[in-house]
Design brief:
Elements lengths: L2 H14 L14 E5 L4 E4 L15 H15 L7 E5 L5 H12 L6 E5 L8 H8 L5 E6 L10 H10 L9 E7 L7 H10 L3 H13 L3 E5 L4 H14 L6 H15 L4 H14 L6
Parallel strand pairs: 1-4, 3-6, 3-7, 4-5, 5-6
Antiparallel strand pairs: 1-2
Helix pairs in contact: 2-3, 6-7, 8-10
């Protein structure tokens, strides 16, 4: 066999069995993004987030998740958490804000974001993180599954940890618009077509049961919506007549046909732009 053929075989074997993941410098950043092909943890220089005190109308969920995360950062037992509910009500913002609020006291608390599509590779990531001294929040935003999606099986392995168990220095936080992570029609189809309907539904629904914390997020009231906008204005030094601000905010909400934290922020961005204010 010539040298060229041997080289091709060696290259193919290397692709099938990639080199071990190189250890990143965890001191270089407080947050990382998990990438595959090749597998690596990429540090994030700037995290897009808002201050914890600016998240209005979610006090109970905020306090519960903050307490859970603080215990985890201090080395104590903590639950995986599913943040579910209304769109634009600060689910992902809360995770990032809580991480930021604890960094001064817990600098070894790291946030790692991963995509739903990369869940099959997470077992290798967990094995790698288990040898590090830092503590890690694995964060998957907007998590949901369709009827033919098998990624939920990988998530079960992440939450249960398999025979080895999940590393004690890793906790998993996910956000979703769906309480059970799967569309209602999917669950109903399973119930109507399966030989054993209860067993088919149980397999799908049991996924969300693996989260120790379920934190619900519900549409905000008009007063909460206006309070969010007032908080943004105060935080960025934007002064506006209170009556005019209220009228413009309500008009903006009416044109969007919705009221949420995201809509409040979008109104504030528009207002700041009209006032010549740069947001950083």
């Amino acid at each position: 066999m010539d040298q060229t053929a041997l080289t091709r075989i060696a290259d193919a074997l290397e692709r099938m069995s990639p080199a071990p993941l190189a250890a990143p410098d965890f001191a270089a950043a407080s947050a990382f993004v998990w990438h595959v092909d090749p597998e690596r943890l990429e540090p994030v220089a700037h995290i897009s987030r808002v201050d914890l005190e600016l998240l209005v109308g979610i006090n109970r969920s905020r306090d519960t998740l903050l307490d859970n995360t603080r215990r985890f950062a201090q080395g104590f037992a903590a639950n995986n958490a599913l943040l579910w509910g209304a769109r634009g009500m600060g689910k992902s913002s809360l995770v990032k804000a809580i991480h930021a609020s604890l960094l001064s006291d817990c600098p070894d608390l790291k946030l790692i974001e991963l995509q739903r599509e990369d869940l099959p590779s997470v077992a290798r990531l967990l094995h790698f993180l288990s040898t590090a001294r830092q503590r890690f929040i694995l964060f998957c935003d907007d998590l949901s599954f369709s009827h033919d999606d098998q990624h939920y099986k990988s998530l079960k392995a992440v939450l249960d940890g398999g025979i080895e168990g999940c590393p004690e220095n890793v906790v998993f936080y996910a956000t979703s618009n769906r309480r059970h992570l799967m569309p209602r029609e999917m669950i109903e189809n399973e119930r109507s077509s399966a030989i054993s309907p209860s067993e088919a539904v149980e397999e799908k629904v049991s996924l969300s049961d693996r989260f120790g914390l379920w934190l619900g997020f519900h549409p905000c009231t008009q007063d909460e919506y206006l309070e969010m906008i007032a908080g943004y204005c105060a935080a960025h030094g934007l002064k506006r007549d209170a009556d005019q601000l209220r009228a413009e905010a309500i008009e903006w909400q009416a044109t969007r046909g919705a009221r949420s934290g995201r809509v409040a922020w979008q109104f504030f961005v528009d207002l700041a732009g009209r006032q010549g204010i740069t947001l950083r």
